Amino acid sequence: MFAHLRQLVRYRALVQSLVARELTARYRGSVLGFFWSFVNPLLLLLIYTFVFTVVIPGVHPPELEPFALFLFCGILPWTWFSSSLLESSSVLISGGNLIKKVLFPAEVLPIVTVLAGLVHFCLGLPILAAFLIYYRADVVALDLLWFPLIVGVQLLLTLGLALLVSALTVHFRDVRDLLQNVLTLWFFATPIIYPLSQAPPNVRRLLNLNPFTHLAVSYQEVLFRPGPFTDWPRLLAVGVASVLVFLFGYFVFDRLRDTLAEEV
Amino acid sequence: MMNAIEVRDVHKIYRRYGRRKQFATLKSALLSGSLLRDLRPDETFEALRGVTFDVRAGSTFGIVGRNGSGKSTMLKLIAGIGKPTAGAVRVEGRVSALIELGAGFHPEISGRENVYINGMMLGLARREIARRFDDIVAFAELEPFIDAPVKTYSSGMYMRLGFAVAVNVDPDVLLVDEVLAVGDEAFTHKCLDKFAEFKRRGKTILLVTHALDLVHRFCDEALWLNEGTARAQGDPKRVVDAYLLDVAASENRQLSASAPSREPQAPSPEPADMFKANEGRWGSREAEITQVALIGPGGQPTHVFQSGERMVIALRVRAAQPVTDFAFGIGVFNVDGVCCCGTNTYIDGGAPGELSGESEVRFVIDSLDLVEGTYKLDVAVHRTGGAPYDYHRQLYTFRVTSRTKDVGIYRPRHSWQFSGGVRIEGLE
With bands split at pLDDT 50, 70 and 90, how would you rate the model's confidence at B261? Predict the structure, then answer.
């Protein structure tokens, strides 16, 4: 398993090119092109802001103003997470021709999916920054040092789950449909459109088991809430869990590796 | 001499898709790394059953066999795309597998970007591709289109590019699976030239093909796979002949079994160019060939003849109305479609009188001086001008066997005569 992990390093140029290909191929032929990377999160944000400030105003506590900014801190990373997992679930099947006809490490495909998602996420950051400046958000400059770490933890967690999901989908096509619903549930089980503090205590205990809760809270703490980031022990705990998730995901993928070409 | 490929007692078992739930296999895959441990024998299919062979470095090696004999499975195992269930495969040096040309191309991006990505998938570094890029594009003859998205390419362009990348990886071992069957004539020639160049440079080529003449021409050694086992291995001509003999034998079995039901065959449309037509039967049917029999020297119908034996082709002919303009024709073709002989009663100087009612026509070959091989037979009754009444195109097959393994088509009665200081023994 670790030999395969090392071998993966040799393929980093390929991963790099494939990510670039993902990004260029995705918007080839669309009028707005790369611009969609900015427009997509903006539109999503607009919808949620509209729903929570115009359709059902006043459900969120006043300390969450400006609510659009609060939403953005959670939605942007969530979009990366959920779209990466959804795409990973079909990436081995749609790339089946490659796995069956060309010798190369299959885990490159889900990894590329997650990394392409990361690039989209990064393209959304300037917009987030613009929001922060527009709302004159009270960001502690030192807190921003935590930001790359949060992204790193999320990357590991997403990679681990993407590897798991992609390999399992080859054996059970059901995973794809199941995943769609799980992700919807997961979205609402994460404090993205509501603050964690608003959940009743017994529900909060459950939400605390969700690793993405702590990622979302960390993003909100660093970017949205005033005051220094104090919740970092939880982030580190999620970080350790993410390493384990990644190793587990890679282990399962590695075990199923030889069966992939036959089952795709 | 060093071996480039060593295959030792390789078995490959695939799972049959079927009724049983998949949990057991997933569990065993996770626990033991094998999909098959928990499966009963009737749920698996053994594609390879203990195959052993070596390919010497620098040689060209051909694998022949029928569909489903395990050829492509073998190739995938050598390419490393699959793992043998049991046994070992060892390959020395960089491998490039031409299994499907352009398998990794993404339709939306340009040929240029695809060359880079495809090359990297095949194990090249970006630098190396940059160095070979011009060669690749020149070989594919795609200079004007290299920056267009691959989805706009014709399938020929697509394949040329795929081939160009794969051969420019500069492999030590090149695996080729039937890719030549898809290109046009010029492309095929180009591929063959490239293979010849590989050969000159001392690279190892493993060729899986149904084009048996290619095996003859190119290979130093050949392997015949049949139902997952090696049936013959060694000199390509011997192997191919053994393979053909087996194909012919089973064909003849099929032919004899289905011969009666073949007689009232539905007429096929008359082809535009008769010499390019495949098997079929056509004609206006004013006169009909109702039965065709091949008769051996013993007077018994047979499909297998010794070279030099007497052969009689017996036709039963029926003409409902008397016909006055007619000729009987015979044509013999070898497996490559080469006409070995063709004649008719008119060419032989016979002027037609009358043909009416039931009759029998016998074409007698005193000595069937053909080399060993499988031959197809045309029989016809037609107007002297050529318009067919009833044309049976390659509907009958016979096999010629010979103790001597000479090549070509024709085996004239011959002898060797020597004088001076020559001494050879054992010549007949």
Answer: very low
Q: Which residue of B has its CA nearest to A173?
A: B22
Q: Give the ipTM of the model, two decimals please.
A: 0.78
Summarize pLDDT for B93-137 with one digit per residue, the tens.
888 888 877 777 888 888 998 899 888 888 888 888 999 999 899
Task: Calculate Rg over the CA atoms of chain B.
Answer: 27
How many domains does one find in chain B? Answer: 2
Chain B residue numbers with beta carbons less than 8 Å from the beta carbon of A99 are: 81
Residue B82 has its nearest CB partner, among A13, A256, A261, at A261
Same domain, B224 and B283: no
Pairwise pLDDT comparison (B129 vs B217), residue with the higher score: B129
Q: Do A259 and B149 touch (CB under 8 A)?
A: no
Any chain A CB within 8 A of the CB of B15?
yes
Q: Are B411 and B308 in contact (CB under 8 A)?
A: yes
Best of B23, B72, B120 to disrupt the A interface by mutation (most A CBs within 10 Å)?
B120
| Counted domains in chain A | 1
**Are residues B322 and B215 located together in one domain of the fold?**
no
How many other C-beta atoms are found inside a 10 Å radius of the C-beta of residue B47?
23
CATH code, domain with B206: 3.40.50.300
Rounded to whole angstroms, the Cα distance separating B380 from B331 reads 9
CA A172 to chain centre: 23
* B236 shares its domain with B91: yes
